[in-house]
Amino acid sequence: MRSRTVRNQERGCIVEPLEGRVLYHAGHEGLHIVGTLVPWTHAPIAPIVIVPPALPSLPPPVSPPAAPPVGSPAVPPPIAPNQPVPQEPGPTEPPGAAQPQFSTIQWADLRPSATPLAESLRGIYGNRLYLFGGFSGSAGPVVNAQYFDAASGAWTNIRSLPERITHAGVAQTGSDVYFVGGYVGNGPGYQQAFGSSHVWKYNFESDNYDRLTDLPRKYAGGGAEIIDGKLHYFGGYTQQRQDTNVHLVLDLNDPSARWQEAATMLTARNHMGHVVYGGRIFSIAGQTGTDEGLVTRRDVEVFDPATNTWSYVSPIPRGVSHISSATFVMGDRIIVAGGESAHNVQVREVWAYTPATDRWEALTPLPAPRFSGVAAAFAGKIVFATGGSATSNWLGTPVLATGV
């Protein structure tokens, strides 16, 4: 076996070979650990060979607009740091509801989180943005769970995850959120298994976790969504970190149900964004490969459960990954915020896709580059939290055209 040095931003570390052992440098924390290499074996798994159909030629990348100057007559006054999100009367409009269009966003600081996080799993309930697990500094994957209350601006801890989970597919319906597969911490720091078959359900009302039917194999880095009482898991990679276009479905209304195969994705990918819009699943961008070998993607696939088929729609203007928890529906558009354009290259870009017109539009970018953040819309505004192992959080206020 050849020895080589591995640098990995996701795990915040450098690993070097050292005479039959490994030397671990814990990123910015200054921690150094020497460990002995132990042979590891696993049952052989047949590789998945993907032959995707040819994509149509893609238009050249488009640069996002620069942030507008603060104080412009069309821009509302900024919100002071550490203040709650201003609430508008009435509940937040449901996905797909008509709302005024915008391309300009004014960003302001919100109260920071207690610990730096990246790759956290997202939940949304009422005025609360939930963050489950993720990577946190030298601690690696954590079990911590918390929520940001948009009404009060406060952070509150909740019951911890049953495992140290990241990279799980996340889907939500009503007061339940589901975590499918993922990386699981199995030792100190960044020691982890790169795949899991576990499926967990968390209920926002009871603050409890329940274990559901396991996946048939161990996966991570894929997407999950729920349509008509069925939990879909798609894409990602195997425990050997091989890309897969797998698509599995579990009937949540049948306690005895097992995962069933469904139409596979057109292209194997991981770390993509995904939402349900108009009764269909949108899988957006992502990457093939991992770490130094990753290649970001631009193509967007849509799954129609009525026909059990995937199809392509217009690609995002620039390839991006690490957007799983920062892709969301706002009115009649799908928003993608931040991400990674190449290994260790974080971006500020914010994009909006309109399914009705099959068009992408660049919005005002984030205040700073950020990958693997957690974002959602609340009362017509955008909350973007953590990501990139940061504690800072932002509120985005859309600036409507005069007379709108």
From TrEMBL:
It comes from the Bacteria. Residues 61-94 have a biased composition (Pro residues). SUPFAM superfamilies: Kelch motif. Pfam families: Kelch_KLHDC2_KLHL20_DRC7. Residues 61-99 are annotated as: Disordered. Coiled coil: none annotated. SMART domains: Kelch. This is Galactose oxidase.
